[in-house]
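User: I'll paste a sequence; please echo it back and then give the predicted structure.

Assistant: Echoing your sequence first, then the prediction.
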Amino acid sequence: MRSLGLVFVAACSGGDEPQVTATMALDLTDVSGEDPSPLDPLANQRIDLTIALDDVGVVRDENGTCRRLVLFVPEAGRSARGATADLVQRELLDRLVGWDVVLELCDDPALSTVVVESSINELNTIFGCATVPDAAHVRDPEGFPALTSFRGTGCTATILDVVNTRVFAASDFAILIFTNPAVVP
């Protein structure tokens, strides 16, 4: 049974740097679906993006032997780099404004995950890592995750163009999480 956290706070870094950034570069090698999509030129291409969260909202909850920290913002900083930057910016990042970073730490570390996600009715994205390094298994005094800088590996991505029923996927990449200050929140 899921127990929704009792803690909701807002936190801000107070500086020029974002509180949390998630940076990733991945190759969209798996494409499925029948209808053409404006994202089709991204098939078999590398996308390189950064999501920056500041003045984050925070939710903590637990599910069995796992505890979760959810950081969210209604409007994240979003940028793309590389050969596909214009298309990624226009068709993904400009449309997906609000973003979440979810760190789930479990009693069995092999079940711990980190997820970076954003969704609107027409477009859904999820970037997640099944490997959270031991150094990132930091907990606050109540036992909930505290986010620190780390590199998540064994990551997968799914980008769903809901309107055109088209799925773009990637696997085996890393997500770099950087926190400012050293531990958030």
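The radius of gyration is 16 Å. Residues 1-14 have pLDDT under 50 and may be disordered.
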